[in-house]
Amino acid sequence: AQSVTQLGSHVSVSEGALVLLRCNYSSSVPPYLFWYVQYPNQGLQLLLKYTTGATLVKGINGFEAEFKKSETSFHLTKPSAHMSDAAEYFCAVSDAMNTGFQKLVFGTGTRLLVSP
Amino acid sequence: DTAVSQTPKYLVTQMGNDKSIKCEQNLGHDTMYWYKQDSKKFLKIMFSYNNKELIINETVPNRFSPKSPDKAHLNLHINSLELGDSAVYFCASSQGPGANTEAFFGQGTRLTVV
Question: Chain A residues with CB inside 8 Å of B31's CB?
Fold first, then answer.
């Protein structure tokens, strides 16, 4: 079965600083990888996804992630944090091994805190 | 004009009761899901329907029964509620059931069992 590990349940940055949220996956087949963001009391919103092709993926709100097969990683970055980026971020892998259907397997989430 | 809407947003009920959560999507998607987020924010899939047919049924107690009357709706009925059922339940939809499709999530239903 596929799995995702997010290192760091909380990450604190200052406004304007680099954001780096770590995600490592485990998969015996080429993975489909996703980053979702959850703002307080809201549902999840897709930031970006990697399926095939270019390994550097650009998403919404200035976020990007790079798929590195050799490191089994899909870390999320943003050059300059804004206060509005404070939220919970979830990395997910799509486990379709048995059924062929999408079944998102989520990491435990990383709360991003942005200070002025 | 919400894409995936759930009702109610909050639900407080006593142990042993039966309750339902409704979900509707206006995106024209074929596939719908129920996910459960526990108190530690861990998200896990419960069910998935494609064109009104159940395609994924995770290890969920049979007190939970999903129903999809049409492609745009997926409801979740829970019998004999237990304290451990307290969680946030998210409905989601995607264009198709493929592994690389984007899922659109509703705002969640916070269920509290007392």
Answer: 101-102
| pLDDT-derived band at B98, boundaries 50, 70, 90 | confident
Concatenated DSSP letters of B6-59: EE-SEEEE-TT--EEEEEEE-S--SEEEEEEE-TT--EEEEEEEETTEEEEE-S
Q: What is the mean pLDDT of residues B30-35?
A: 96
Give the count of beta carbons closer than 10 Å to the beta carbon of residue B2. Answer: 11
Question: In whole angstroms, what is the distance from residue A78 CA to residue A81 CA?
Answer: 7
Interval B49-89: pLDDT, tens: 999 999 988 878 999 999 999 999 999 999 999 999 999 99
Q: Do B105 and A43 touch (CB under 8 A)?
A: yes
Report CA torsion sign: A92, B108, A47, A11. Answer: negative
Tokens of B53: 């047919």
Q: Which residues of A touch B97 (CB under 8 A)?
A: 100-102
Give me the residue from B41, B56, B107 closest to A101, CB to CB.
B56
Q: In order along chain A (116 residues), what is the average pLDDT of each group of 10 residues?
A: 91 97 90 93 92 92 95 97 97 78 91 97
CB-based contact, A7 to chain B, within 8 Å: no
